[in-house]
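Notes from the 1:1 (GR / supervisor)

We went over the backlog. Supervisor wanted to see one worked example end to end before approving the batch request, so GR pasted a single chain during the call. The sequence is below; no edits were made to it. Supervisor asked that the structure be written out right there so they could see what the output format looks like.
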Amino acid sequence: MSEPEVPKAAPISLEDLIALNEEIAALVRAGIPLEVGLGDAHSTPKNLRAITDRLRLEMERGGSLPGALRKCGAELPPSYLALVEAGLKSNRLSDALVSAAAFARSLLEMQQSLRSALIYPVLVLCVAYGFFLLLLGDLLPRMIHMLAQARATPDALVRALQFPSHTVAYWGPAVPVCALVAAIWMGLVPLAAPQRPAVMLSRLRFLPWTGRIVGDVQSASFCHLLGLLVDREVPLPEALELSGSASADDTLARECRQIAGDLRQGLPLKQALQTSRRLPAFTRWMLAAGQTQGALPAVMATLGDVYRLRAGSRIALFRMSAPLILTVVLGGGAVAAYALLLFVPMRNLLLELSKASLN
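Structure output shown during the call:
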């Protein structure tokens, strides 16, 4: 009997990743083998059935959970696979899946907050941009024609707007297209093909308000998983490597591998941490202090809770303040610029016309 063809792996959306993780976590907590409980047609969402069917098939063949996840037909984030592997090694898979769910939900909440905060300001900006194009494409040529008939000299602002007015047919449509491409690149516009969470996180860091939120979410995941692994007596170098890989931060993962290599060579943890730039100074200090006091698991668990609470507070603050700030900055700025570009040339035109009529 021929084996079914392996579907081509494609990135999985955050919503589907959360649903898949919750199904696996529920089966693990209940003690039900995954090859028995996965893919129940009554409980599995339709868009996940192909993935869970393939996952169940791989588990029935005797494959490990991380290996089955890699062959399930979906391109799962490396951070999620690292969390599952760490949970199996620490014999606390359920806790690792809970951590993965919290990480994915924080990212999804941040993405939804960004989208909702941008709706009204973007509408205001679109209306203002439409009026700006109308000004350059229709009103400004009329003003220049009237000034020419009155034999008046256009002022500096009108002369500066002549070239954009002549080329508006070229750059006018290009600006919103470029803005749409940038929004898609940031993950703010949902597409049929979902973005990888790690890629989304790295791109969201470019936005002014989200850099610290992303950092807190990643630090919370790193600290929680590191404490979990050390508590289950996983060697610290290996725990650092797994925790760094699960953070969805390539820079942090690379630094953790370097720190782990230094530890294997006999370097003290405090000295090995000095080369790190991505880990916050407070995290580095708590790591060294926790190991010195023999309480590293408890220290990391507490620190992970601190970062998670701080990320939640910042997301809530962003959700309340971002729509107002963006409306004032984008909408107010666009209206002010439109008023300046319209009324100043109009005023100068009327003055020139009045002078011409007097002469």
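Supervisor's comment: The beta strands are 10-11, 74-75.
Batch request approved.
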